[in-house]
Amino acid sequence: MTAELISQLRDIVGPTGLLTTPDQMAGHLTDWRNVYAGTAAAVVRPATTEEVAAVVARCHAAGVAIVPQGGNTGLCGGAVPDTSGRQVVLSTARMRRIRDLDAANQTITVEAGAVLQSVRDAAAAAGRLFPLSLGAQGSCTVGGNLATNAGGTGVLRYGTMRDLTLGLEVVLPDGRIWNGLRALRKDNTGYDSAAEFGSGGEGEVQALEVAGTCWW
Fold first, then answer.
1. Which residues form the FAD-binding PCMH-type domain (predicted)?
2. Beta pairing class for 42-44 and 88-91
């Protein structure tokens, strides 16, 4: 990781969106059980899809690996960097907006960093139920729920997160944005984006989910 790349990332996300000191990064370098721990060159906290795309493009060009991180509530260390100190953690903590809620169509479009409880609360305020529910719902994020294909307590009745997802907006490894946000349940135009971009793959598929349209 060069000083030039650090400067470029700071230009993209602003001074508050880039963490580089040990104290600033500490909470992003271990899981909540303190079982897995690593080090990172920086923690980047973009606030928009365009900022995510720019960060990914810069890191791709520099050959620097990215570790996406949502609520960091996973139990298998998938959101924790390795010990090389050369990786960049990309946190979705600043991407928590609910972009749209269509009560008539029973769909909600949220960003990857949206906390599951806030999504459930927004649905409830509209007289609807977003059925995904699990113990970490007060801190886990929709992006993480998608990455792990979370099922929760109502999985037998409502299915997994993949079943609840209609469309995705993703950033590809070279920084291109693919917009597959759709609110249509019966959609045969192309591939199933939730399956194609690794819902349940925990990062195995090389794409970063930045927003999703879900239904209930």
1. 36-215
2. parallel
Q: How far apart are CA 107 and CA 213, in angstroms?
A: 7
The pLDDT, as a whole number, for residue 142 is 94
Those residues with Cβ within 8 angstroms of residue 151's Cβ, 6 or more apart along the chain or in another chain = 134, 159, 160, 161
The set of long-range contacts for 177-185, using a CB threshold of 8 Å and a minimum separation of 24, is: 177/49, 177/50, 177/53, 178/207, 181/109, 181/211, 181/212, 181/213, 182/213, 183/102, 183/105, 183/107, 183/109, 183/213, 183/215, 185/215
Name the percent of the chain lying above pLDDT 90: 75
Segment 181-193 shows an average pLDDT of: 75
Residue 193 in 3-state DSSP? helix
Same domain, 171 and 135: yes
Tell me, what CATH number does 130's domain have?
3.30.465.10
Distances (CA, A) of 122 to 59, 101, 129, 162, 184: 35, 8, 9, 20, 20
CATH number, domain with residue 34: 3.30.43.10
What are 139-161's pLDDT values in tens digits?
999 999 999 999 999 999 999 99
For the stretch 62-119, pLDDT in tens is 999 999 999 999 989 999 999 999 999 999 999 999 999 999 999 999 999 999 999 9
Contact partners, residue 21, CB within 8 Å, separation at least 6:
none
